[in-house]
Amino acid sequence: MNSDRQNFFDTAAHIKTGRIPLALIVDSPWLPGYAGIDTLDYYLDENLWFDINLKLLEQFPGVVWVPGFWWEYGMAIEASAFGSRLMFHHDQPPSVEPLSKDLAFWAEHCRVQNPEKDGLMPLVLRQIERMDQKMEPYGLSQNIACARGILTVTSWFMGVSTMMEALISDPNTIQPILEKVTETLILWLDAQLKRMREPRGVMLLDDLVGMISRRKYQKLIEPLFKRIWDHFDGYIKIYHNDTPCEHLLPTLAGAGFDVFNFSHETDIAKARVLMGDQIVLMGNVPPRDLGAFGTPEQNYQFALDCLNKTNGEGIILSFGGGVSQDTKPENIHALMAALKDWEKNKSR
After folding, report:
1. Nearest to 113 by CA among 73, 71, 84, 82
2. C-alpha distances out from residue 306 to 90, 137, 182, 300, Å
3. What is the dotted CATH code of the domain comprising 3-346?
4. For the chain, which ranges sit under pLDDT 50?
5. pLDDT digits 0-9 by tens, 71-119
6. Per-residue CA distances from 67 to 117, 229, 239, 312 (Å)
């Protein structure tokens, strides 16, 4: 494992290294366009996929890609296991449609899914195995298992409106469904970790948690959320939720994850106050407004502001979300330059 990636894991574990990581969540909404290829080719040609991900390490030295060499199909993997309809496109990740928007249907038919057999999950697990062999001669390895979160997955197979209405008006019916989704996610993450030579962490991505009240979160979601994090004790745990949800931040801080990638709409200094020092903040340069559509100068200055507001303590510099479609390489280089200049000035 290279020193930059080790520094990321050390920082996530609150080990002081004297170096601030620059880490970016990157996946298929951005990579095919960055490489100038058809999205379907990115999914189908494993050699092309490997070369594109390898090129990132060469073009952006020092940047840690999270999770790095990620086999994903947009939001489709977990949803496919629960029977959602997938529609593939040449210029974006797959669209997902619910199998049924009837809560009663899911109350009767929802079950725990088997990652070794259901949906796209077995294909991804095999791809992890195959790519692990290809990465080893380069001194590389896959380290972070990833899954969409409880509410995100549920929303894809039953519809957002059905799920949100049930959380409010019929919690007794939706609770067993959420339990089955939770157990599926634990099995899915476990299956990925078992196929990695150097498993180090898990990442959960769930923006919809930010759209519910604190009371509803604590009653229905928090026990399930903690169950996932507790299961992976000993691993670095990363949570992505870029929905503005300041009302939840003090509560989320005790859920059990280590690193929080959050909305750029929340000032990083305020996030520190609300979450305390136990959470490493991963952010929070605006990914779309600046990463995709801003100038290098704007990205550079915003990155400096993030570093200054935290004094570089307990922070992983990043976008406040994943790398957006159409993000310009020069804007990533601007983040690299900002970090280099800040650390140089700090050392004087």
Report:
1. 82
2. 36, 37, 34, 10
3. 3.20.20.210
4. none
5. 999 999 999 999 999 999 999 999 999 999 999 999 999 999 999 999 9
6. 24, 17, 12, 22
pTM > 0.85: yes or no: yes
CA 10/CA 15 separation, integer angstroms = 5
Query: Cα(106)–Cα(159) distance, rounded to whole angstroms?
Result: 11
Place of tokens 């489709």: 76
Give helix 171-194 / helix 160-169 axis angle, nearest 10°. Answer: 120
Centre a 10 Å sphere on the Cβ of residue 168 and count the other Cβ atoms it contains.
11
Phi, psi of 132 (to 5 degrees): -60, -40
Asked whether the beta carbons of 68 and 144 are under 8 A apart, the reply is yes
**Residue 263, CA distances (Å) to 23, 38, 194, 246, 288 in order:** 15, 29, 31, 9, 11
Beta bridge partners of 282: 261, 316
